[in-house]
Amino acid sequence: MTMTIEQEIEVLDQFPVGMRVLAVDDDQTCLRILQTLLHRCQYHVTTTNQAQTALELLRENKNKFDLVISDVDMPDMDGFKLLELVGLEMDLPVIMLSAHSDPKYVMKGVKHGACDYLLKPVRIEELKNIWQHVVRKSKLKKNKSSVSNGPGNSDKANNNRKRKEQYEEEEEEERGNENDDPTAQKKPRVLWTHELHNKFLAAVDHLGVEKAVPKKILDLMNVDKLTRENVASHLQKFRVALKKVSDEANQQANRVAIDSHLMQMTSHKGLGGFYHHRAIPVGSGQFHGGATMMRHFPSNRNLGRVNSLAGGMFQSSFPRNHNDGGNILQGLPLPPLEELQINKAFQSFDSQQNSLMVAPNNLLLLDGHPQSSSPSLNPGFSPHFETSNNKQRLEHWSNTVLSTNMPQSNVHSKPDSLEWTAFCDSATPLINPNMDTSSTSFCRNTDFGSSNAAQTDFFHPLQMNQQHANNWGPMPTEAQVFRNCDPKEGLHMASDAGSLDDIVNSLMTQEQSPTDFSEGGWVMV
Amino acid sequence: MNTIVVGQLQRQFQDYIVSLYQQGYLDNQFTELRKLQDEGSPDFVAEVVSLFFDDCAKLINDMSTSLERPDHVDFKQVDSGVHQLKGSSSSVGARRVKSVCIAFKECCDVQNREGCLRCLQQVDYEYKMLKTKLQDLFNLEQQILQAGGTIPQVSMN
User: Domain HTH myb-type, which positions (chain A) (predicted)?
Assistant: First the structure.
């Protein structure tokens, strides 16, 4: 039976006192400080200013150290490389250190298997908790081996047992864990290394993406201790990422399609105005820390947008009243709105029919992303498009919808259900029943196919975290960053760190501007 | 122990260190470093800043070499140097030095040699200035200790 964390700690008695840390940094000033800080935390510290030396020390005796802390920029070896090697060869927890707050680096760290990523100057408070990574890692190892050695090792039994363990883990960790790291709370992670992922890719390739089912992939991969469930969740993400990649590829064509589609739908010349609202540079002043982005939705302005658009475009087609608020948006694809805001928006709908000014802010937010497609769509229908998450989602989402050329009245009915569902279900359920007309249901996924339901579970918890955590301030760096950046990366973190390397890489390079865009809004210390 | 003298020295010390914070030479990180100093490591701060100044000298020298020839500037090296300097200056709480590094990095990013040279000069000036100031501070500390007193902990809120 697995021990609870508390039990384990008791057994280890002195731990974390005397935990053996290997600290690596080519900067002697920083190394000296780090050493002292670690001593102050009562760890046992070994230092070296060379990555190569560090590797040798580790190879000499794997059991000599419990944890490695390493700087990222070192002349003799890339810190990420060291990280990867240590992870692969010794399977020790590695914490990255850097003066780079750029999320790209943090992402890189995570993808290469870092347990955590700390920014310089490091504070002692941050170091006081690093021992948790050691415990977590050893617990993981224990789980992995117990799971695959169990009797009657069917997938189902595995799943059940794992879920039970997950649940127990979750409980304990929530109790004992100061750290909000989401990776702590899920099932024992399989580390999707490059190698493993490549095997996965090869298997999928062999089977064909459409026909690739977890069981077959698993068989082809032939990896010890890998379960069907691991493969299944990895496959899910893979498919999502694939979809997004292909959506982006279709973006350009869609832009045209969207425009003409809209023109048809509304047959109203008022539409013209909205095409002009393009990439307005995003001022960093807009984003008063991440908090603003996530929480502060100026509903009036959004409302104005909806209204004026509605006024301009739907006069002929749709009634504009409180109860049919849903309908108004029905005609055009609706981005995943936070329900609270939808509610507000529609409640005041009546009273603010034509008079609202649309603050350029809205467009600002929406179009900060140079890749933002469908100018006619985005400005009007994504009032809460303030996070890069939403932004990308909308684009992909709207692209998906429009590329399938849905008939007018059903344009919204087949959105990218993942985001849809996630946003709808995860946010506090504040749907005003009045406005939720049957056909609209932009917050109840009645129109969604069954395949989506499965994915709901996957995304749901993350979205919960993402939107409910509301900690844009003192959150652990790692988790915070991941929630901040590309949602896919965020999802990554929730389950398997280091997965989908290739696809995500390509996505990251494509979407450079989110990082620019969000520079202003991030509270990265 | 001459309590009056010790008292005076301590006040002097306090005023001086506060002024350093106020003038932006030092920031909170320096306070953190001071907290780490104790009987076990009584010269910790002095050691660390000494390492820091050595680093500065070396990095500045290397960067100077890289920037020397107008037709052949190794911006990559300069960038790496600035980055390291930024990291270590932020770790010791050398606020002004760090600020210059930020501007320095920007010049580097756009490959502005002139700008880089100016920043280099400035960072050189700043670290030397800080070195002098801290030297004075440590001297005051020594005087206090020699007069039999204890060094006041100064919290900057």
Answer: 184-243
